[in-house]
Specification:
single chain, alpha/beta, Rossmann fold, Transcription Regulator spoIIAA, six-stranded parallel β-sheet, five-stranded mixed β-barrel, 19 strands, globular, binds iron/sulfur cluster
């Protein structure tokens, strides 16, 4: 039996795509081993979102070659899309595959394609007409949560981001295929399905009449059984009233939204190429929090974008402080070669970035604690992920980690709980009588 090892860098979409290749190779008779182990085949799914991701991606390739210099090494993902020749010329790399053909990797390996032995390169330009391939999983991962990739590509071209150059134009998966994949995962025992994409809120853009909320409605209507749907990160202007309405009334749609902010300064937002302003963000978040009680709202925020002054940072801090957020994901700007912002003047000193980042991380902690406190006395439906020594833990629909004691192993089941305390970053609850 041939052994294959995988390493995935970067986003959830990359991870879903690796799972798909893994599943197909297992079907073809491969045994999956840990990446630190000698394998006959290594598949490295790279990321290029920052120069650190580039460095890590190359380091992982070298690590595979050190573990088994005789192995076949296949490199794919966003760095493979951006710098295919450079990667193909690395000693020991057998094949580089761009994002468009990533889904065919198992097939290419199985066919013993001559490209594999001759150090090949497959990288075709991505077109808006390329369909998103259906996925047919066979594995059961003993987990509760699975991801369905519904969309790929981005055409927003924010000035700091390389993604539009590596993922191509926006494409959406056929709604019937999404439902089919969804049903399959529910039948395999998954109870929470996350709808994910590179720019998820753009779902349906090139399919007349289709939108993300219509897709969610279709799934809810056509898929029976016990499950819940979670949405991955979504841009502010893509949160439709219909989506909010569904979140208000449909318990199977998680009350959780991750809405990138990036900056609370209109000047910085404009330079970033973001398509909203501070006031719009503030209004929509407050309105959403009012319409959907106890919704878990998270924001991405970037510090140290070129030209960000103390006043700009103070505006960001103030806005975040005022909003009812559960989580903040704080990033330090790092110039990505090939993006407009990398050559902007007024790059911010690393020391200043570190200071601003640590101020926001403290704020994030305070906000998380405040949100948890607000949950005391509330009922939460928890999808149980682990049970050990009569203690179960899982995630609530509004994205809080909850623990409660139970003599039963409730793994993989929904539990109705009431929060009565908090402990560190978790809610402590009891099972609802
Ligand atoms: S919306 Fe902006 S930040 Fe997000 S992937 Fe597209 S270009 Fe990058």
């Amino acid at each position: 039996m041939k052994r294959v090892a995988f390493h995935t860098l970067g986003c959830k979409v990359n991870q879903v795509e690796t799972e798909q290749i893994k599943d197909e190779l297992i079907q073809k008779g491969y045994q999956v081993v840990d990446f630190s182990q000698p394998a006959d085949l290594y598949i490295i799914n790279t990321c290029t979102v920052t120069h650190v991701s580039d460095r890590k991606s190359r380091a992982v390739i070298r690590r595979a070659l050190r573990t088994n210099p005789e192995a076949t090494v296949v490199v794919t993902g966003c760095l493979a899309e951006l710098e295919p020749e450079k990667l193909a010329s690395m000693k020991g790399v057998n094949l580089v595959v761009g994002n468009r053909d990533k889904h065919r990797i198992a097939e290419i390996i199985d066919s013993q394609d001559e490209l594999l032995t001759n150090g090949g390169l497959i990288r075709e330009p991505i077109s808006s007409q390329d369909p998103l391939e259906p996925v047919y999983y066979h594995l059961h991962h003993e987990r509760t949560r699975a991801f369905v990739k519904i969309q790929d590509g981005c055409q927003s071209f924010c000035t700091y981001c390389i993604v539009p150059y590596t993922r191509g134009p926006e494409r959406s998966k056929d709604p019937d295929l999404v439902v089919k994949e969804f049903k399959q995962l529910i039948a395999m025992g998954y109870r929470e399905i996350v709808l994910t994409g590179i720019h998820t809120g753009q779902y349906g853009k090139a399919m007349p009449g289709w939108t993300l909320d219509r897709l969610v409605k279709k799934i809810l209507e056509e898929v029976g059984g016990e499950y819940r749907i979670r949405l991955s990160s979504i841009e502010l202007r893509e949160i439709s009233d219909q989506l909010i309405e569904l979140m208000r009334n449909e318990p199977r749609l998680c009350r959780h939204l991750h809405i990138p902010l990036q900056s609370g300064s209109d000047k910085v937002l404009k330079r970033m190429g973001r398509r909203y302003n501070r006031e719009e963000y503030r209004r929509r978040v407050l309105e959403t929090a009012e319409l959907v009680p106890d919704i878990g709202l998270a924001a991405d925020v970037m510090v140290g974008f070129p030209g960000e002054t103390e006043e700009d940072f103070a505006a960001t801090f103030q806005l975040l402080q005022d909003l009812p957020l559960l989580d903040l994901h704080v990033f330090k700007y790092s110039p990505r070669p090939g993006t407009p912002a990398a050559s902007f003047p007024d790059q911010v000193d690393e020391r200043v970035k570190n200071e601003r980042s640590s101020i926001l991380l403290d704020l994030a902690e305070q906000k998380h604690q405040a949100f948890l406190k607000k949950m005391i006395g509330k009922k939460l439906t928890v999808l149980v992920e682990s049970c050990q020594a009569a203690m179960c833990t899982g995630l609530s629909d509004n994205y809080i980690e909850v623990e409660f004691s139970s003599i039963y192993n409730l793994c993989g089941q929904f539990a109705e709980t009431i929060v009565n305390d908090i402990s560190q970053n978790r809610a402590v609850a009891i099972l609802k009588p």
